[in-house]
Each structure stands twice: as structure tokens, then as C-alpha cells.
């Protein structure tokens, strides 16, 4: 006789079930940037994934209703920035709708391929967009790494239970 695990109270699939489940999943925090027709754009992402080492590919998701989507939809290159635990305010700024994301106190510069590169991050990459895959109300952007710098100092910023947190030992 096999034991049946206690399954609690299962819920039918819904946006809230997905959100509630992924609030329990700790994720690294990144900011994705691009050069848009009207200036730099960017957003906070927890969906950043390493896809392939040969060739070096990454992916991230973006909602088609996001203010950054029109620029990301047209961009040839994007910037990917891994944030440190000292950058929770920066992460919040890039996550907030209507924020002046590139105004003070955000420190950044024009980088390779015209991509906005944020200062003082743990690591940054400039990537060439190679695909945009429809996925519900989002697009999964695939991009090939062109160059970057992984030499920033510090510990990673994490997102868990709706809050930005530092890594604990």
C-alpha cells in the first residue's frame, strides 16, 4: 500500500496561483536596458536565465503592456545588469511604473552599441537580440552575449515574497 501525500488544498490554475507560487521562489534581480527612439528604457527583471554557453545566450521575459516593451521590441541590443544587495532602491526605481528611471540618482553611461550601462553593478552584459518568442501576455527575448564585465564587488540582490533582500549565510 502506498501512502498518499497530504496535498493541502489545491487550487485551479490562475494568475494569482502563479504569482503566489513564485513569491516563494527567490530570484536574482537584474535590470534590462535598451536605447529607445525617445531615449533610454529599462525595467527590473527576475526572469533572467542563462540559456546556452556555446554560443553564449541569455533570455528574459517582458510583458507586452510594459512601458519598455516598444523599445525592447525594436532594439538590436540590450544591456543586462546583475544588481548587488546595495541596489534595492535602483531595483525599485526600475520596477516602478512612471518613474524617471534614468534621472538622478541613477548613475549610468552610454555603453557599447549605444546601450545604457548602469554604474556599480555586480556584472553587466551587452547582448544582441536574436529572437522574441510569444508567451501569453509576454515575450521571451533571446539574446547573444557580445561583451561584458563580471568584476563588480559585492553580493547579489534577491527578490522574495514581494521584497528585495540580501543573501544570507
Q: Describe it for me?
A:
The chain is mainly beta and 169 residues long. The chain contains three helices and twelve strands, in the order αβββββαβαββββββ. The longest helix has 9 residues. The mean pLDDT is 95. Strands 3-2-6-9-10-5-4 form a seven-stranded antiparallel beta sheet. Helices cover 14% and strands 43% of the residues. The protein has a domain of 112 residues: Pnp Oxidase, Chain A (Roll). It holds the Pfam family Flavin_Reduct. Its EC number is 1.-.-.-. One of its GO terms (molecular function) is oxidoreductase activity. It comes from Streptomyces cinerochromogenes.
Topology of helices and strands:
Blueprint: H1 15-23, E1 27-28, E2 30-36, E3 39-45, E4 49-52, E5 57-63, H2 69-74, E6 77-82, H3 88-95, E7 108-110, E8 116-118, E9 123-135, E10 138-149, E11 157-160, E12 163-166
Please summarize what this structure is:
It contains three helices and twelve strands.
Structural class: mainly beta
- The CATH class of the domain at 38-149 is identified as Mainly Beta
CATH superfamily of the domain at 38-149: Electron Transport, Fmn-binding Protein, Chain A
Widest β-sheet, arrangement of strands = 3-2-6-9-10-5-4
Estimate percent helicity.
10-25%
How many strands appear in the DSSP assignment? 12
- Quote the beta fraction: 35-45%
Q: Could you please say which CATH topology of the domain at 38-149 applies here?
A: Pnp Oxidase, Chain A
Q: Mind telling me the C-alpha Rg?
A: 17 Å
The backbone outline, from C-alpha atoms, is globular
CATH architecture of the domain at 38-149: Roll
Low-confidence stretches: none
Let me know the average pLDDT. Answer: 95
Domain Flavin reductase like: 22-166
Keywords: Oxidoreductase
Protein name: Flavin reductase family protein
Enzyme class: oxidoreductase
Amino acid at each position: 500500500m502506498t501512502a498518499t501525500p497530504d496535498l493541502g488544498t489545491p487550487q485551479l490554475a490562475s494568475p494569482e496561483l502563479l504569482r503566489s507560487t513564485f513569491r516563494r521562489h527567490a530570484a536574482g534581480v537584474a535590470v534590462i536596458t535598451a536605447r529607445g527612439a525617445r531615449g533610454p528604457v529599462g525595467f527590473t527583471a527576475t526572469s533572467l536565465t542563462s540559456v546556452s554557453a556555446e554560443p553564449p545566450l541569455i533570455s528574459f521575459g517582458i510583458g507586452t503592456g510594459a512601458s519598455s516593451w516598444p523599445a525592447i521590441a525594436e532594439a538590436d541590443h540590450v544591456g543586462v545588469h546583475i544588481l548587488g544587495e546595495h541596489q534595492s532602491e535602483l531595483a525599485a526605481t526600475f520596477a516602478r511604473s512612471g518613474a524617471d528611471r534614468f534621472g538622478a540618482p541613477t548613475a549610468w553611461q552610454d555603453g557599447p552599441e549605444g546601450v545604457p550601462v548602469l554604474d556599480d553593478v555586480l556584472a553587466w552584459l551587452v547582448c544582441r537580440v536574436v529572437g522574441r518568442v510569444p508567451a501569453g501576455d509576454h515575450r521571451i527575448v533571446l539574446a547573444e552575449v557580445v561583451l561584458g564585465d563580471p568584476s563588480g564587488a559585492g553580493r547579489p540582490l534577491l527578490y522574495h515574497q514581494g521584497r528585495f533582500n540580501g543573501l544570507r549565510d
